[in-house]
Amino acid sequence: MSGTKQTSDGPPAEAAGGEVVLEASGVKKHFAQADGLLDRLLGENASVKAVDGVDLTVHEGETVAVVGESGCGKSTLGRTLLQHYDATAGSVRYRGTELTDLSDREMRAHRRNVQMVFQDPLASLNPRQTVGQILKAPMEVHGIGDSDAERTEIASDLLERVGLKANQLERYPKQFSGGQQQRIGIARALTLEPDLIVADEPVSALDVSVQAQILNLLQELQDELNLSLIFITHDLSVVRYLADRVAVMYLGELVETAPTDDLFDNPQHPYTESLLSAVPRIDPTARTDRILLEGSVPSPLHPPSGCRFHTRCPKVVPPADWAGSEEAFRRAFRYRTRLVAGEVDPAAARERLRAEGEPTDDNRVVDHLIEGVLGETRAHLPADAVTAIDEATTAAVAGNDERAARLVEAAFPSPCAGETPETVTVDDAHTAACHRIE
Amino acid sequence: MNTMDSVDSSAEATSAAESDATSLLEVAGLRTQFPTSRGTVIAVDDVNLTVERGEIVGLVGESGSGKSVFAQSIMGIVDHPGEIVGGDIRLDGESLLDKSDAALEALRGGRLSMIFQDPMNSLNPTLTVGEQIAETVRLHQDVGESVSLPAELKRKLLGATKNSEAWRRAIEMLEAVEIPEAESRAGDYPHEFSGGMRQRAMIAMALSCEPDLLIADEPTTALDVTVQAQILDELRDLKDEFDTSILIITHDLAVVSEVCDRVAVMYAGEIVEQADARELFDNPRHPYTQGLIASTPRLDAPNDRLTPIEGNVPDLIDIPYACHFAPRCPEAERECFEIAPDFRPVGEDGHEAACLRRGPTEEQL
């Protein structure tokens, strides 16, 4: 990181002192996956754990970014907080009122306080309604304005406030550019004078020059109206620009939460570190070594045990009695992960050897598999670890995958795979859930 | 803007082998347009661009800039009713516009390869990834008999046996793009791959025929940032390994800065500035490039405030003003609307911009 000027953004400290607008704790949203008749008969009731125990607090006037990669559950979290989805478990309080207990009718009254802005404005605007109709409809439902004329006036004001012209009320959404449509989406969210807006990737579909217009508009409106904003995005550069506080999400859980500058300057969780290292930078001197992650995000249907990131983490913790180096352990642990996930494929290895004209007996296949994953590391492993790997691979080649998994799990245990990490406070308002943090 | 100033000075050229005298790709005065009911859309308007051997060039622009149509023009795959109406595209000195459809077909998937934003649309869902790459390898090795038969039929007749040379090559290519367990994953169908792995498979396929030029149209836009980083590293390594020239088409300035040697900035059908990547980002000169950089949120240099470019990208039908950027330009004066700007040197190492408000600095004159 370049040590350039550190502009202190006022908001974090200030906002943290402000009144709590939204407080979520232990929020879960699981989707039933197997709803076919056969699945039900067989009692298979696995569910997609899209959001799995999230705590999040938003203060007055504060922008909290929820950042993560596709499939991490960030959009589901946003919708669950707004009660667009019924939470499977946990509590969502809006200024002290528990929203998850409310009936649909009771919730309707609350909807005016919490509004949403979507990624694709055109898809979220009714193409057959004029902008005026789109803006006035929610006012009618909630009884804002005494007459149509008054509502039209409010709508005109709103349109001007988001940078459009009052005389565009009679136009249809598709007559506007993408950026203008997003302005309309924002105007609609503002019709009911909410104090919290959840914006789900609101600028991701926009060109960079237009994106900047919308980001600045959101900021101005926020200052002017003292709005709180939950900003859901995959774009860390946008987060750095806009957010007061950041929550990093991985596979349904928040792994780290911190004031924005803290998160970027002093990331604690290995996932956050690798995420930050991957962001492309214009300034070559600001680049850091990439921390590449192996494998892909596991299925939220069967999330990994312990720390959910352990199957990809470059900093997995060895057990206390590990005799070799940390690096050797991590390499061996990676092999464990692949064997357990059934990613090691003896049949394909045999094909490969045959194609290369090599012998294809079991011993040769075992060697080939181990060589492929461990390479040089094998020489640096303690003797009993080598034995375990040989035995496990032999079992896998013999078709006994369960035995193979059991052997490597016993030989390479890690607290990361065994125990769920507690969320630890690192510093003021900076928390992370990782076994490496005391 | 009429000169082809890409050919290096003659002193160097004569000493080098003949093939080094010309650039790998030379696009001169290219114009591609689409007739519509409302008028003619000039998507690419008199564009010059060169790509040297072993070079990674970035073409940056926002939507509607014409950058993708530019790529399609090179590949000869402009959608009907669009057509190339002017200029020339030369690969190794040979014009592609003179070639027959069959000859172009042979070039694509041979010396010219392209990867797209959405790899799922370019992969055949009914064939395993390994079979598709092996097929490409076979087509490439034996161009003569392959073009007439549809790939699937051919596969059934000839069979992509797993012992074949082509299959082995397919696995090697998957390993080259770092697909884990390549020998096993080669037997998977595209839907069994994650988005990042599909894009790698596309790159593997594109490189399996050892193209001279790889055109990558928004290759990482649909990918998560950690996957994007891997793909960008991959492209750079592969350039070194296979000595492939790469033209990357993207909207993302940071991506360009990470991987490109040289950058051209495109706006409303025209290239407005080009320079070495470092020079362009250190010393952007065209008001559009400056505006683009000022409106980009930066992780590396946190912005106090973004400065957006006012207004919107123009409709490319009958643009009535000489400089296409003039109506949005904070520096535009009356002449900008009336006089088309020529390219002029504005900095180091062939740094050029097309803007009346920019001239050569005194040192350069």
UniProtKB/TrEMBL annotation, chain A:
GO MF annotation terms: ATP binding
CDD domains per the UniProt record, alphabetical: ABC_NikE_OppD_transporters
Signal sequence segment: none
Keyword Membrane: no
UniProt keyword annotations, A-Z: ATP-binding, Nucleotide-binding, Transport
Domain of life, source organism: Archaea
ABC transporter domain mapped to chain residues: 32-276
GO process annotations (BP): transmembrane transport
Keyword Transport: yes
InterPro entries (alphabetical): AAA+_ATPase (IPR003593), ABC_transp_ATP-bind (IPR050319), ABC_transporter-like_ATP-bd (IPR003439), ABC_transporter-like_CS (IPR017871), Oligopep_ABC_C (IPR013563), P-loop_NTPase (IPR027417)
Database matches in Pfam families: ABC_tran, oligo_HPY
NCBIfam families documented for this protein: oligo_HPY
Family to which the UniProt record says this protein belongs: Belongs to the ABC transporter superfamily.
Record protein name field: ABC transporter ATP-binding protein
Naturally occurring in which organism (per UniProt): Haloferax chudinovii
